[in-house]
Specification:
single chain; 203 residues; mainly alpha; 2 domains
Length: 203
C-alpha cells in the first residue's frame, strides 16, 4: 500500500490523483489507463504518483475504494428511508430515474470495475465485494426495520430479501446498459418490490 499522507495538502494531492485516475478509467478502462494518463490529468509528476501509490495496481485499488464510496454515498439519503415501504419504493424509483436520465448508459460503476479487474487482482475484487456488502447491508437494515415496526410479517428473512433485491438491481442495471433503456431496471425492481410486498402486513 502506498503512503497515506499526514498533511492536509498531501491528502488533497492524493485525492486529486485518485479522482483523475477514476476519470481516466471511466474513459479508457482500467487496463487501458496508464500512469502517464493519470499524471497528465492530475497535473502530478511520476514521483508524486509513486510517492502515494506503490504501482498502478495500488492506484486502481484506491479507485475501487473511491468508486464504492461514490456509489453508496449517492444513495445515503435514500438508504435512510428504507425502513418504510414508501421509502423503499422511493429508492427504487430514484435508481430508475437516474438510468432514465442517462439513457441506460453507465451501468453500475462497482460492477464495471469488477468485470475489468475482479479476475486479475484478488485484493481489488475483495474491495469491490465489500462495496456490494455495504450496499446489501443498507437494504437489509431497512427491511429489518420494517419487520421490527410490523410493516413486514414476523419471521420475514431480511438477509434473503436484501440479497434478492441487490441481485435485481445489478441484473437490471446490466440489461439497461446493454439495451440503453431503463425499463429492464424498472422491471427488475418491480419484481423485487413484488416479492417484498408478499410479506407486508398491510396493503
Amino acid at each position: 500500500m502506498g503512503m497515506q499522507p499526514a498533511t492536509e495538502r498531501g491528502r488533497r494531492t492524493r485525492e486529486r490523483i485518485v479522482t483523475a485516475a477514476a476519470q481516466v478509467v471511466a474513459e479508457k478502462g482500467a487496463l487501458g489507463a496508464s500512469l502517464d494518463d493519470v499524471g497528465a490529468r492530475a497535473a502530478a509528476s511520476r514521483s508524486q504518483l509513486y510517492h502515494y501509490f506503490d504501482d498502478k495496481t495500488d492506484l486502481l485499488r484506491a479507485v475501487a475504494e473511491t468508486t464504492n464510496d461514490a456509489v453508496l454515498g449517492a444513495q445515503e439519503d435514500l438508504f435512510s428511508g428504507l425502513g418504510t415501504w414508501a421509502g423503499l419504493v422511493h429508492w427504487a424509483d430514484a435508481l430508475v430515474a437516474i438510468q432514465r436520465e442517462r439513457g441506460g448508459k453507465g451501468g453500475c460503476p462497482i460492477a464495471g470495475l469488477l468485470g475489468q479487474l475482479g479476475e486479475r487482482d484478488d485484493d481489488i475484487r475483495a474491495v469491490l465485494a465489500d462495496g456490494f456488502d455495504r450496499w446489501e447491508t443498507s437494504i437489509r437494515t431497512g427491511l429489518a426495520a420494517m419487520v421490527a415496526s410490523g410493516e413486514l410479517r414476523a419471521g420475514t428473512d431480511p438477509d434473503w430479501l436484501a440479497a434478492c433485491t441487490l441481485a435485481s438491481v445489478q441484473g437490471g442495471l446490466v440489461l439497461s446498459q446493454a439495451r440503453r433503456d431503463a425499463r429492464p431496471l424498472r422491471q427488475a425492481l418491480d419484481g423485487a418490490l413484488g416479492l417484498i410486498a408478499t410479506y407486508r402486513t398491510t396493503v
